[in-house]
Design a protein that fits this description.
By secondary structure, the chain is mainly β. The protein contains one helix and 14 strands.
Length: 166
């Protein structure tokens, strides 16, 4: 049901994620982000921008983002969005330029998800995932982190509690 997810933004634009062959991707898949059928440049792009775009597309969070020349199809697209600066994970907090000054080696790739990944949690009434802190863990989709029992520590990227042996 997620493969048709395309979202409108102010100025009548749309975001979508595409794969190596230009196919529209589903939730959790990693791909090239497009705005109005063109690529998005990584100038000023950060975790807030990734979360804002994913959230605007109807997802809960960005799982991962990076930039570079990864797909042969990138050169077939114009670069249509640049200098995306967001102060938080909401599109309304973002400014951007539609006059790009970059190359395809700066194209943004991203993966969006409905659920926060294990080792993170989504606080009530929040739109982005937060990392578990201290000696706590969580599973995928958690709304809070749980403390590890006395004598154990969080391991495996805050997804399990364990003990140290020597």
């Amino acid at each position: 049901p997620y493969n048709d997810r395309v979202s409108s933004v102010k100025l009548g634009g749309t975001f979508t994620l595409v794969g190596r062959n230009g196919n529209t991707l589903q939730q959790g898949e990693f791909g090239l982000i497009l705005f109005n059928g063109g690529t998005v440049c990584d100038d000023y792009f950060n975790d807030n921008a990734a979360n804002a775009i994913c959230h605007f597309m109807g997802y809960t969070t960005a799982r991962y983002w990076t930039s570079g020349e990864k797909y042969d199809i990138q050169s077939q697209y114009r670069i249509t969005l640049d200098e995306v600066k967001c102060t938080r994970g909401e599109w309304s907090s973002c400014t951007y330029s539609q006059s790009p000054n970059c190359r395809h080696r700066e194209d943004v790739f991203l993966s969006c998800s409905e659920l926060c990944p294990a080792g993170t949690f989504q606080p009530v009434n929040q739109t982005s995932c937060k990392l578990c802190e201290g000696n706590t863990i969580s599973s995928e989709g958690a709304s809070s982190c749980e403390p590890c029992a006395a004598g154990s520590v969080s391991i495996k990227d805050k997804t399990e509690c364990g003990t140290c042996t020597m």
